[in-house]
Design brief:
53% of the residues lie in helices and 12% in strands. The chain has 339 residues and is α/β, with parallel strands linked by helices. It folds into two domains: 126 residues, Oxidized Rhodanese, domain 1; 201 residues, Rossmann fold (3-Layer(aba) Sandwich), CATH 3.40.50.
Length: 339
Amino acid sequence: MSVPTISYKETLVWENPIYVDVRAPVEFVKDHIPHAINYPLFNDVERAYIGTLYHTQGKEKALLEGVSIASLKLRDMLSFFSTLKEHQVIIYCYRGGMRSESVVSLCNSIGFSFYKLYGGYKEYRHYVRDYLTEYTFIMPVFTLYGLAGSGKTRVLKNIPYSIDLEHCAGNRSSLFGSLGMPNHTQKYFESQLVQELRTIESWRYCIFEGESRKIGNCHIPHCVLNSLQNGKAIWLETPLEKRIQHIYDEYMPFIREEILLPILDKLQPTMGKAKTAYCKQLFKQGNIHELIEFLLLHHYDPEYRHSTKNISFMAHILFKDPVTTASEIDSLIEDMLSV
């Protein structure tokens, strides 16, 4: 008997849908529907085992083994899903196949009213790709620039019309940007970005931090990159001492010798052997503030100034603190929009 099926687009009009992802954790962590709950039918080891059986002994053997493994989990599974029975629940696996269908069938056989997601995660990915291909900003776009450590991200967190691309990517967008960050996959990044874009239709404007084409391993989609690069540019000016302290506070909890030294080695082609060796010496001596200052003055600042030399800035704002500076930028933009 077929089970109730619904497309992802159809669920978007629901007030509080609950998505349950029954894929293995190794699949879920790479990407999933935002806010989905992971209740895996098979754990990572079981999934790999069943996959091996499928390729070596055929579909029937893999199916029987899958049923055998899943049957041992029925009590716990039904106990979990019973906590959701009063909600609008959509269950999905990779293709909307046997994993999600069997769970929906089982739950509905005892009185629940759950749905299977049509096409599963794969169909959801089609939605994400199409959305990013077709998306157009309908409000003015602004871009905040500033040297490393200027406090751009801190400021943007206090502006209500900002999208934090680095948060979506799980990376601070530099060689050191992965430290203390989850480093999301491209697919996860796109899912988070679509989730953000779907909420901004009523915004007065949208402001981003100036980024290159990539944040860590994530490529910024063209619809966002083009708007970001063509947005009205604002420069955030922050004294060197504050920049050094910002970077120290942000990265110091994650700095270890076995992590830092290989990163410094990657700077050698641009900084040269002597400067790279000097950076390592500063670190080993515990002169972290001096190391940060040296890296800024001899690597990051020249690189950033070169990359922004052709940008015309509509305003220069002096960093005071995140809240005050955010308020100044917001007022500046609102004044411009009201003209």
